[in-house]
Amino acid sequence: MNNDPLLKVKNVSKHFQLKTGFIDKYLFKKQNIVQAVSNVSLHIQEGETLGLIGESGCGKSTLGRVILRLHEPTQGKVYFGSKEVTALNQLELKKIKQKMQIIFQDPYASLNPRKSVEDIIKLPLKIHESLSKKKMDQRVTDIIARVGLRPQHLKRYPHQFSGGQRQRIGIARALILRPEFVVCDEPVSALDVSIQAQIIQLMGKLKEDFSLTLLFISHDISVVAYLSDRIAVMYLGELVEICDTGELLKNPLHPYTKVLLDSIPRVEQIGAHKRMILKGDIPSPLAPPSGCKFHTRCPEAMEKCNMEVPVSREYSANHWVSCHLYQSN
Ligand code: SF4
């Protein structure tokens, strides 16, 4: 049996250069570089769902896009099976993109308002496969039924649908090519809570039907926990903790993970439990704090935390954490 991961991310960083003003550039020799993702490594086994959580702006969507090469990495490598995605030429990339797809966060912005649903869903097929019209129609009919839409929806336009239905169209477009791996980039965060549950259940079913491997990105840990086999926690561009979902919920180690878990309202907490609250906003990735990037907000920060960068360490089997609290047993 082959136990090699389907997806490997090795030491990936993505920095964006912002426009620098004349004075900053020539007088102070200053460069505005946003460190969106810093030295991230992870893997995903075939058939696994890895959840990726963190606050807005922590770099999780950028990482998803770097994996699919919608952004070029500043450094590091991404492997899909035996292929190094980051080294492929445009033709090879087009081929592999049949197997690697994305579902976007915003079902309003990600669908072309001038195209009918049929055209939107058919477009990837036209680009990547040469099928007869009959076969193409069969594939479209099949996928819209699987995502819970009806044949009469095909002739309509995106504005004629609710947010949940538009996300179903986005899912159909991502799955029409029968990919092996899908990045789900906050697929439910723009939806009402009642609709979120339907879409999450649909994602779970489609994952089984199509034997998918998923990277499920969300800022909501309860959404991620429902679908994921393992969870990776990201803070200001870095992975701070990664382990099985059950282990993370039972035994969170990193103070940031504990705060995220504490933010889930639970009946038994009311009145009895003093919840951990994060101080301040997430710092700017233009000038991240020294040492542990979380030290400016960490309820358990120690003296060395603002000077020394913690290294990632396997605290218990398959449970990795980057925090000075766990540097020695
Ligand atoms: Fe908090 Fe220090 Fe651990 Fe960072 S290294 S999470 S500041 S205790």
Number of strands: 12
Radius of gyration: 21 Å
Helix content: 25-40%
Largest sheet: 8 strands, mixed
Bound molecules: iron/sulfur cluster
Output mean pLDDT: 90
Number of helices: 10
User: Could you tell me how far the N terminus lies from the C terminus, measured between alpha carbons in angstroms?
Assistant: 34 Å
Give the spatial strand order of the biggest sheet. Answer: 6-7-8-3-9-10-12-11
Q: Structural class, please?
A: alpha/beta
Measured by DSSP, the beta-strand proportion falls in 15-25%
Poorly predicted spans: none
Order of helices and strands: EHEEHEEHEHHHEHEHEEHHEE
Overall body shape: globular
Outline the structure in words.
By secondary structure, this protein is α/β, with parallel strands linked by helices. Helix content is 30%, strand content 23%. The strands form 2 sheets. An 8-stranded mixed β-sheet has the order 6-7-8-3-9-10-12-11, sandwiched between helices. The chain has a 4-stranded antiparallel β-sheet with strand order 2-1-4-5. Strand 4 (75-80) and strand 5 (83-84) form a beta hairpin. It is globular. The site of iron/sulfur cluster has 14 residues, from loops. Iron/sulfur cluster (SF4) is lined by residues 254-255, 292, 294-295, 298, 300-302, 305, 310, 323-325.
